[in-house]
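User: Run a structure prediction on this.
Assistant: Running it now.
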Amino acid sequence: KAMLLLKKKRYQEQLLDKTDNQISNLERMVQDIEFTQIEMKVIEGLKIGNECLNKMHQVMSIEEVERIIGETQDAVEYQRQIDEILAGSLTEEDEDAILEELNAITQEQMELPEVPSEPLPEEIPEATPIKNRPKPELVAAS
């Protein structure tokens, strides 16, 4: 009877080992499936990204991009020149010409409108009070 019980114990241990191996295999298969699903999502994302890039390339040609870059560089150069002028990098000849133009403008007789001879009203209109609005209350989101 003891021998029969030992055989039965040995058989159940072998059965448990086989079951553990099968569970390990199933877990490995589940992990492989999950990893494959993630890979598929990555590939799908790359595919969508590729399609978007192709559409952008159809809309924007190389010539268009080069034209935009050239215009931007021209605008930057123009702005740099303006900055240099405003920063006082004018030559003495430029400054002399500017002073002469300023003198010519200030020496011209300008016709100014006549100033009214009537006195200004002394009443100062009262400022209308600003109505105080109730401040909105902050409510915590739940």
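The two ends are 69 Å apart (CA to CA).
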